[in-house]
Amino acid sequence: MTLRILFHMARADFFERTRRYSFLVMLGLVVWLGYLSATGALAMSVPPNFVGEVNSPWVGALMTVTVTMFLGWFGFYLVKGSVARDYETGVGQIIATTPLSRPLYALGKWLSNFAVLSVMVLILMFAGIAMNLFFGSAPLDLWALTAPLLFLALPCMAVIAALAVLFETIGWLRGGFGNVVYFFLFFMGLIPGLEAESYQPMLDPTGFRLIGDHIAQAAKLAYPESEGGFAFQIVTAATEVKYFLYNGFAWTVDIILPRFAFVLIGIGLAVLAALFFDRFNTTKVLRGKKRLNPDPVQASASEAAPLPSLQLTPLSAARRFRFGALYLAELKMLLKGRRWWWYLASLGLVIAQLTVPSATTPFLLAVAWLWMILLLSALGSREALHNTGEIVFSAPRPTLNQLPAAWLAAFTVTALMGSGAFLRYLLDGDFLRLLAWTSGALFIPSLALALGVLTSSRKPFEVIYVTWMYLILNAVPPLDFVGVTSESPWQFYTLSAFALLVLAAFVRHWRLRGGKLAR
Amino acid sequence: MHLTIQNLSKQYRRDFWGLREFDLEVKPGVIGLLGPNGAGKSTLMRMLATITQPSAGTIQWNGVDVVKAPDALRSTLGYLPQDFGVYPNLSALEFLEYIAAIKGLDAKSARRRIEELLVLVNLVNAAKRPLGGYSGGMKQRVGIAQALLNDPQLLIVDEPTVGLDPEERVRFRNLLSDLSGERIIFLSTHIVSDVEATATEIVIINKGHKIQHAAPEKLLQTLEGKVWQWVVPSEVLPVLKQKHIVSGVVRRQDGIQVRAVSEAAPASDAQSVAPSLEDVYLHLVSQQNGAAS
């Protein structure tokens, strides 16, 4: 009986997700990843220039690393949202009245997450088979190609699937903050396994270290002068490479057992999630946010006083749109709903930009602009998220009036958050950084608005923005719209800001004309 | 002030029309839209509210085609969607201020109007509380208030009494009647009593087609002498339901009192009674369903 419930829960959830438009987008992304790997744009190598011959073990290892690195990271965002949907749609309230236990619910969600991620793994497996057949130097060996995906990638996906459930059942990790936390958790989580003196299976959920060490050994065997180590990167220019033969793993119990342990960890995390799961009893949340959510029944009862007879004062017919009023309303909307410590920390970040040594200011600016991620991520998608579209967009000139006001409000907040750095650069006469600052202040709201309008979701901005800021903090010049490096392509980002704004306006207008309100 | 709808159609899929070749001409008053679920009421409402583009046809507001120029209507439009949300972190006051800004009201008028509306929808004491904590009925009242913010000449309310308690429902119906003087109000619902109490004209829609448009009195006249009431043993009821349009059943000590529509007296003891809108509605819809099948 339990298995039957589990099966039907996971099945319904799986169908619900795979029949969504967003699933097609997900598939598109994965197919693109497969294409990058198959065409050599995404490649593994042993420094400086040793790569494996294209045979089944090599392709299997390449696809496994692609799965664990990319699906391990953004796969979490792809599958997260299933529990939240049950809250939003009200289906949760129905589920809550059934005898379904919390662990069973959590396991059902885990299974469905795992199934979705497995479909992605399957697609990459087919990409690998195609790569082997079309570009391979040896015939296809199906077991050698699929075994690393089975033993390394799938257990990793089991953990990711469970983490998505766990994050969704913990109230404060359910939203955008959880998305940011996971980003750092994933990338920081790679470090112990990679930095360990010797291979520690339980510190390597992605299997990245295991494959890396194994490939480095194979390269060393063929080329004793190889430096060891392992790289997995996007290849932008053709370089001369030396090939070595990679024969893959002998799948011993020593390797397989720890991988099964990760599957068990996944199940364990899903069961742990059940402990935090409130079984759609939202009053628990209400108690925690007393200010936000007074008892609705009480509030309703207090309004039962008899209504005086009242005539509405007629309004004058002549009405002129006031941009200022709408701008202030949008600004209020952006800033409302934060806790007091959010504003305090914001103020601290602004003051710190002014007071720290000059060299540190750009980094603090990046942190300050990252700090407002959750504030900006609803831009452009707020109407879809809260289902206010029909009210907001039935007002006059919804694109030309509301969109610029929303953008300007976001620009104001971005500028305020970076005002410390702005003053500092001005005082220091650092005009190059001032230009970068300006491009950033223009670009960030435009990016948020465009992604929000295009996707009707806050998640894409949260994922892209946190990744982008992480790379900026690691000083990657082409991505630098903050001025962390001295080579910020500020001209490009200034132009992009306007292009994205126009794109957002065009898409919004097109959707409204076509009656395609995203909901 | 007049609204003319000509040949209005909305096709969702190749073989599915939400609304088909719909014509209507209305003047100020409350136009009650009645129809079963999926009849096309909300599709019509959304097209009138400039949210959805028709597949064909025109909607003319004071002579201007609002399909081509929606802003001609939007400044004088008030719309309460069937299913809508609010921003949970804003209070009712702030939410109404935001919508007022979007609708282009000046600060002074907006303030006065919001104060009046909060009194009208009975939310003065809760006005500064975040909307996230509001009950369904309270949110519905905020929705009603936002629809009236700009003193609309065309007011479209889709299932407005959903979630309201009986007292609030009566209050809202009275409000609609009070407002109807110099404006056009579209009231979509399948609660016949709401329409009965307020509508000056009634449009009945079924399967995407308009099947009737007339004043309530005219509609009632069509069934004059055709509505009957009598008492039958309970086991006879299933047979009766197959033969007549049964619009009401009341269990009594001596059996079941049946109310049905029939051209001639269905039983020797059947008494002719005054028709209600519910009788008319059921009669027209079942007639069309019968014709279609």
Could you explain how this protein is built, in words?
The complex is a heterodimer of chains A (519) and B (293). By secondary structure, chain A is mainly alpha-helical. Chain A folds into 2 domains: 2-286, no CATH class; 323-513. Chain A is built from 23 helices and 4 strands. In chain A, strands 1-3 form a two-stranded antiparallel ribbon. Chain A has a two-stranded parallel ribbon with strand order 2-4. In chain A, α6 (102-135) runs antiparallel to α7 and α13 (323-335) crosses α19. The radius of gyration of chain A is 26 Å and the shape is globular. The two termini of chain A are 37 Å apart. Chain B has a domain at 222-292. In chain B, a hairpin with a 2-residue loop joins β9 and β10 (209-214). The mean pLDDT of chain B is 89. Chains A and B meet through α12, α13, α18 and α19 of A and α3, α4, α5 and α6 of B.
Number of helices of chain A: 23
By DSSP, the count of extended strands of chain A is 4
| Mean pLDDT over the residues of chain B | 89
Radius of gyration of chain A: 26 Å
How much of the sequence lies in strands of chain A comes to under 5%
Give the count of structural domains of chain A: 2
User: Which shape of chain A, going by the Cα principal axes?
Assistant: globular
What topology does this entry show?
The complex is a heterodimer of chains A (519) and B (293).
Chain A: H1 2-18, H2 21-38, E1 42-45, E2 50-52, H3 56-79, H4 82-89, H5 91-96, H6 102-135, H7 142-169, H8 176-195, H9 208-222, E3 231-234, E4 242-244, H10 253-276, H11 283-288, H12 296-301, H13 323-335, H14 340-355, H15 361-371, H16 373-376, H17 382-386, H18 389-392, H19 398-417, H20 419-428, H21 431-455, H22 459-473, H23 490-513
Parallel strand pairs in A: 2-4
Antiparallel strand pairs in A: 1-3
Chain B: E1 3-13, E2 16-26, E3 29-34, H1 41-48, E4 56-61, E5 64-65, H2 71-74, E6 77-80, H3 92-103, H4 107-120, H5 136-148, E7 154-158, H6 166-179, E8 184-189, H7 192-198, E9 201-206, E10 209-214, H8 216-221, E11 227-232, H9 237-243, E12 245-252, E13 255-261, E14 271-272, H10 277-292
Helix pairs in contact in B: 3-4, 4-5
